[in-house]
Write a structure and sequence with these properties.
There is one protein chain. The chain has one domain. It is built from six helices and no strands. The protein is about 85% helix and about 0% strand.
Length: about 140
């Protein structure tokens, strides 16, 4: 579950930026319309988009904070595995091995570091979600 969320972070950020632009468009339209049924529809659409932005922003903030809080090598492994390396075609194990051999780490050590990092991120994510639920 958490791996998919981490892999989706770049898309989440792009989606959040798109939603914010859409919200601004509705705001500009609202400023031009004095009254009437159309104004009410725009306000409703704007409210829905604002709610969507809040949800996306809070989830993205939780995940990015969890990744940022990782110790140096764990953060490096997560970023390389899921952001820089994840979408490239070919043998992922081979690419990871070559990359981390230059740092003096074996593939097994990288795999171990990645598992620890994922557990840490998942715990932080669940804690953040629980905090949001309490609010």
């Amino acid at each position: 579950m958490i791996i998919e969320k981490i892999k989706a972070m770049p898309r989440m950020k792009a989606s959040l930026e798109y939603s914010q632009r859409e919200y601004n468009i509705y705001s500009n339209m609202l400023n031009k319309i004095e009254n009437g049924d159309l104004r009410e529809k725009i306000i409703n659409a704007q409210d829905m988009i604002f709610h969507e932005i809040e949800q996306k922003a809070s989830e993205y903030k939780i995940l990015s904070s969890a990744v940022d809080a990782l110790p140096g090598i764990q953060k490096s492994v997560i970023i390389y595995c899921y952001f820089k390396n994840g979408s490239k075609p070919g043998n992922k194990k081979e690419r990871l091995s070559k990359h981390y051999e230059s740092l003096g780490l074996s593939y097994g050590k990288v795999k171990s570091i990645r598992k620890k990092a994922l557990k840490t991120i998942e715990a932080a994510y669940l804690a953040g979600q629980a905090e949001l639920a309490e609010e």
